[in-house]
């Protein structure tokens, strides 16, 4: 997990460097630069895992590295959400309250991971009675998820944080396998609804009116994230093939970035134009990411014969045969 944390931290720092450089040459605010850095740093867990599965590397070293980085990013979404929603509304930011919330969220998560990692799987007393009942498992899992999300939101943390905690608890129990089996159809439906809602949020008039800005931003993000990811993974001491495959799988902006952008816009931390640009660029990078990975692999295969040493046999003394 240590290389994954280093890589995820490097991604965040590089994204911040890019957005604050843009802030220096534009009229963007501190909050907009910070939140755009958060948005760019995140990658899509769903898209990355699907691409790695398609090339048969999800359970290999590229998949192990990418999944570790994506988990670190998903955990980082919690403080990102808290910071993003606290930056809007007024110039005065309650830093003390914000730091307390982030500290509590990280401490609870770290303590739970430590506790679950040091003991055998949790076995609820009702496990034997419900593990064969598909309806109870599905409804119970959703109820537990919504309850945890509601409590988390009520105490001032993100509802997504509570849902994540609920998933960790269920995943560390003996009900994990049956719950995964019954929740997969629901997950597919919710994923479709999620992307449907994203499609409804995208402002096509804005994209048409600003297509050059959107296109340049999307291309820049994909190229920058690809180069950065490969460089960071190589610096972590991993092979070139692993770096390329894992880096390409994380070249897009993630679905959590939609949540961050919406939360920041609702709290007035970012303006309407920045919000629409973030949604458009995120959507485009998600759409073209699989094609981008295929293109890079085709280029690599085309260039491979040119870089391989010649295998033609030569004469022992190095001289050419003369007729």
Write the layout of secondary structure elements.
Elements: H1 2-24, H2 30-41, H3 45-54, H4 61-86, H5 95-117, H6 127-130, H7 134-154, H8 159-171, H9 176-201, H10 204-209, H11 211-235, H12 240-249, H13 256-266, H14 272-307
Helix pairs in contact: 1-2, 1-4, 1-11, 2-4, 2-13, 3-4, 3-12, 4-5, 4-12, 4-13, 5-8, 7-8, 7-9, 11-12, 11-14, 13-14
Could you characterize the architecture of this molecule?
Helices cover 76% and strands 0% of the residues. The chain is mainly alpha-helical and 323 residues long. The N and C termini lie far apart (64 Å). The chain contains 14 helices and no strands. It has helices spanning 2-24, 30-41, 45-54, 61-86, 95-117, 127-130, 134-154, 159-171, 176-201, 204-209, 211-235, 240-249, 256-266, 272-307.
| Extended strand count | 0
Mean pLDDT across residues:
82
Largest sheet: none
Question: What best-fitting shape do the alpha-carbon axes yield?
Answer: globular
Q: List low-pLDDT spans.
A: 318-323
H/E topology pattern: HHHHHHHHHHHHHH
Helix content: over 70%
Strand content: under 5%
Rg computed from alpha carbons, rounded to a whole number of angstroms: 23 Å
Total helical elements: 14
> Pairing-aware structural class of the strands and helices?
mainly alpha
Straight-line N-to-C gap? 64 Å
